[in-house]
Amino acid sequence: MADQMQWSNALSTRPSLEAAISEVVEQAVGKLSTQANLGIAFISSAFTSEYSRFLPLLAEKLDVPVLIGCSGGGVVGTSSSGEAQELEDEPALSLTLAYLPEVNIHPFHVIAEELPDLDSSPNAWMDLIGVPQNSTPQFILLSSNIGSGINDLLKGLDFAYPDSVVIGGQASGGMGNRIALFCNNKLYTEGSVGIALTGNIALDTIVAQGCRPIGTPHQIGKCDRNIILEIDEQVPLILLRDLVASLSEEEKVLAQNSLFVGVAMSEFKQDLQQGDFLIRNILGVDPAAGAIAVGDYLRPGQSIQFHLRDAQTSAQDLEFLLDKYQQQQTDKSSPVGALLFSCLGRGEGLYGKPNFDSQLFQRYVKDIPLGGFFCNGEIGPVGDSTFVHGFTSVFAIARQNGE
User: Fold this and answer.
1) How many angstroms separate the CA atoms of 52 and 47, rounded?
2) What is the DSSP letter of 265?
3) Which Pfam family is one of those matched by this entry (predicted)?
């Protein structure tokens, strides 16, 4: 069994940091038959005042060559009975340990000032990260909202490593939103920490944006940066008002607060379906010009479709993607572990009950440990590019690379 990938997770809700660390280390180590070479830890913001103590205390109990992690407004883990749990607004610690044979694990920390210009060659990005392109790394990335230049970093990684997966989340905190990023024995509050995994590993991704399309796809005729000036040769606001008027009464109420724009990620796909769109906020409208402002830069010719979001839609969207994933797995190696990066706006606040996304995941992807946290922004691919999302649950599912 030593040459097979192994993965474990342990969760503690003990209010004492020392006790929580002892509990997760004992349980996570006990579930492996060999020594781990990777640790991923998520600590609840209930421990904000103790972030600086976390790594020294953990080092007393755990010897692992590479460890990354961060703080979260909530953490996700697997209970001793094997059930996934999402713990929000309470002391909690989630520790994932993995034994990854035939995998090189390269940790890194970068800040915005170190990022190459977006016109730079791929070599500049490879020098920054320290991993060659031909090794096709799988990235797990944890970032701060401060000093990370996260959007430029994602563009650079996509450019330099076009066949790689980049997945992760932005650290979140409690009062004052103080956050922590961990990389080996160091604590950071700015930039991004991550690992590049190369060799016999694949990270499958599920990016559940929690929306369903309404109406039909349209094409942007004119736009200025993030402002839509013309859709299908019509005034955008008039087209949108006509669309809302055609909705059911229930949908009309939903459209007042939960209306979004989906931007198609492929210029060539004709039959656009759920999951083919990058969901972005509507920032405002200009009644005089009939224009609509969106939370992303756009270009003429792009296809868009309006979307709605609520708890039921979010649940249906995740189930649709999990079912699709399950059907695609028949000819691939079995998953051994997973990470969940979920928005602070999901969880119990969205569904009215705890553990919804994680336990739905477990119904489709059975018997593997799950760890994760609640993010200020979720990082994952849509189409061929990687984005920071909102109100999204992003899953990274690890397996050996053999088909």
Assistant:
1) 10
2) S
3) FIST_C
